[in-house]
Amino acid sequence: MRVLHAPVNVGNQPWVLSRYERMQGIESELVVNYSTWLNYPADRILSKHGARSAVDLLRRLAYGLSAPFRYDVLHYYFGRSLLTWDDLSGGGARFTDLRLAARLGRKVFMTLQGCDARLSDESARRNVVTPCKLGECELAASCRASTDASRRYLIEQILPLVDRVFVLNPELANYVPGAVFQPYASVDVEGIEPVPVRTDRPPLVVHAPTNGSIKGTKYITAAIERLKHRLPFQYVEITGVPHEQAMRMYRDADLVIDQVLAGWYGGLAVETMAMGKPVACYIRDEDLGCLPAGMRGDMPVLRLSLDALEADLERIIGDPARLQEHGQHGREYVMRWHNPRRIAAAMVAAYADPESKFSLQ
Q1: Residue 262: which of 185, 159, 171 has the closest Cα?
Q2: What is the rounded distance in angstroms from the CA atom of residue 302 to the CA atom of residue 282?
Q3: How far apart are CA 11 and CA 311, in angstroms?
Q4: Per-residue pLDDT, 90
Q5: Do 255 and 333 belong together in one domain?
Q6: Is there a smaller number of Cβ atoms within 10 Å at the N or the C end of the chain?
Q7: pLDDT at 129
Q8: DSSP readout, 125-185?
Q9: What stretches of the chain show up as alpha helix (H) in DSSP?
Q10: Mean pLDDT per 10-residue section of the chain, whose length is 361 residues
C-alpha cells in the first residue's frame, strides 16, 4: 500500500503519522507544496512559499496530477489538496487531484485541524467563548466576508467525495457531518524524555502562541501581570522561534498555558505533556461528545475559564507542589491517547477499510 500525505505539514501531524505508518509496514510519505518558518520536515518540498516561476508551477502541477496514479491512498490536510495553492492567491486547479483520485477509485482521506473548517459565524453563534467573535481573532471579519464561504464549499462540495474525514479539534465535528475525532499524532511521544517540574525555585510559566489572537494571549498576559504582584513566579512568552529551538526552551517550563478561547488544546500541549509538564487551558465541555469516553475521563488539563482567568491561574501557580503531580499525569495521558504508534495502527486499518471503527482502546 502506497500512502501520500499532502500538501501541507500543519503542526507536524502528517510527518509523525507517516513515520509510524512506515513502522506498520506500508509505504508512506509526506510531500508539501512549500515549507514554513517552523521548518517542519517533509520527504519532498515542491517549491518555496509563493514561488511563481514556470519551473515551480510546472513542478507543482505535474506532481498534483500524477499523484492519483502513483498512490493507493491520498491523505490530505487542512482542507487543501496538492492543486489548491493557497500561497498563490487562489492559484492552481483547486481539488482537481482530489476529484481525479476519487474518480480513479483511490481511497481519499482528509484531516481537518482548526481554521480550515471552523465556521466563524457559526462558532460565534453557538459558543459563549471563541476566537471567532468579532474583536477577538484579527481575521474574524475576513472570515465572515469570504473565508466562511470557502469553508462551506469544502464541507458541502468536496468532503462528500472523501472516504473518511478526521478532525483534530472536537469543535469541528459540529460543522462536518460524519467526521471522526482523531487525537493529535503530531508528537513522537515515545521519543521525548520527561523533564520533571522543578520544585527548588519559583515556577517558570510559559506561553507560546503561534497566533495570539486565537490563543487569547492578551487575556493571559493581563492576568499574569496582575498576579506578578501577589505570587512568586517567572513568565516567558515564546514566539517566532523555529520548532526545534522552541522544544528545547519548553524543557525548562514548570507550567504551560496553552489557550483560553479555542476550547481545545493544541500540539504544544501534547509536546509539553510528553515532557511531563502540566498544561493549563480552556476546554469547551460541550464539544467533547465525539471523544472516546476513556479519553474524556483521563484528561489531565488544568482548566481555565475566561471569566475567572486570574483566579484560575492564581490557584494553579499558587500550588507549585502539585505541578509535578499534574505533569506526571499528563505524561501518562499522552502516552495512552496521543501515541502515534496506536493512532497509526488505527489509521492503517482505516486505509484498508474506510468503514472500520477508528479505535484506540
Answers
A1: 171
A2: 8
A3: 31
A4: 60
A5: yes
A6: C
A7: 96
A8: HH-SS-TTSTTTSTTHHHIIIIIHHHHHHIIIIIGGGSSEEEESSGGGGGTSTT-EE----
A9: 13-23, 54-70, 96-103, 120-126, 140-142, 148-153, 212-215, 217-227, 243-250, 267-274, 293-298, 309-317, 323-337, 340-352
A10: 97 96 97 89 95 94 97 97 88 87 98 96 96 92 93 96 97 96 95 93 94 94 96 94 89 97 96 97 97 94 97 96 95 97 96 87 64
Q: How far apart are CA 136 and CA 260, in angstroms?
A: 12
- pLDDT for the residue 69: 98
Q: What residue type is assigned to position 249 of the chain?
A: M
Cα radius of gyration (the chain): 20
- The answer to whether residue 19 is domain-embedded is yes
Q: Which neighbouring-strand residues pair with 77?
A: 111
Indicate the burial class of 195 (C-beta count within 10 angstroms; 0-12, 13-18, 19 or more): middle
Query: End-to-end distance of the chain based on CA atoms, in angstroms?
Result: 25
Cell of 114: 482548526
Query: Amino acid identity, residue 34?
Result: Y
Same structural domain, 42 and 179: yes
Beta-bridged to residue 88, according to DSSP, are none
Could you give the 3-state DSSP secondary structure of residue 212?
Answer: helix
Task: Identify the pLDDT of residue 335.
Answer: 97
Contact 95, 108 (CB under 8 A): no
- Contact yes or no for 300/323 (Cβ under 8 A): no
Angle, alpha carbons 254-257-260 (nearest 5°): 160
The confidence score (pLDDT) of residue 356 equals 84
Distance of CA 255 to the CA centre of its chain: 20
Give residue 210's pLDDT: 85
CA distance 259 to 212: 9
- 231/342 Cα distance (integer angstroms): 41
- 199 and 132 within one domain: no
- Say which amino acid occupies 56: D
Question: For residue 289, what pLDDT is reported?
Answer: 95
Number of compact structural domains in the chain: 2
Q: pTM for this one? A: 0.93
Confirm whether 360 is domain-assigned.
Answer: no
- Ramachandran sector of residue 310 (left: φ over 0; alpha: ψ -120 to 50; beta: rest): alpha
Q: 213 is in which domain, residue-wise? A: 189-337
Distance CA 167, CA 180 (A): 6
**DSSP-assigned letter for residue 355:** T
